[in-house]
Specification:
Blueprint lengths: L2 E5 L2 E3 L5 E8 L7 E7 L11 E5 L6 E3 L7 E6 L4 E6 L8 E9 L2 E4 L3 E5 L2
Parallel strand pairs: 2-11
Antiparallel strand pairs: 1-3, 3-8, 4-5, 4-9, 5-6, 7-8, 9-10, 9-11
């Protein structure tokens, strides 16, 4: 059974930091590229617009949306089957539900999301 479980979300003040985790099981994590997406409140899903960051299976290549570049860092621990998103210098516009996604041959797997609220 495939599972992706995000955690680490919460309420943080502007300028603060959070680290999200996505713990996985049930598939070959070390062979899977992993991606973080987000969905802002009141907005329809648009995964192209809402893409945040991607890391390759080996962790040797990372890509970021312009809106988070320099503030967010994606990483992974293949021994723990977990991907992380370190978020620094958070802004109110980063408020969203954050989802992780695994890409496997012929399919994608999604987590249930973890909410992040940036507000004073």
């Amino acid at each position: 059974q495939v599972q992706l479980v995000e955690s680490g979300g919460g309420l943080v003040q502007p300028g603060g930091s959070l680290t999200l985790s996505c713990a996985t099981s049930g598939f070959s994590f070390s062979s899977s590229a992993m991606t973080w997406f987000r969905q802002a409140p009141g907005k329809e899903r648009d995964w192209e617009r809402d893409w945040v960051a991607t890391i390759t299976a080996a962790g040797d290549t990372k890509a970021y949306a312009d809106s988070v570049k320099g503030r967010f860092t994606i990483s992974r621990d293949n021994a723990k089957n977990t991907v992380y998103l370190q978020m620094n210098s958070l802004k109110p516009e980063d408020t969203a539900v954050y989802y992780c996604r695994a890409r496997v041959p012929g399919n994608y797997y999604w987590g249930q999301g973890t909410p992040v609220t940036v507000s004073s």
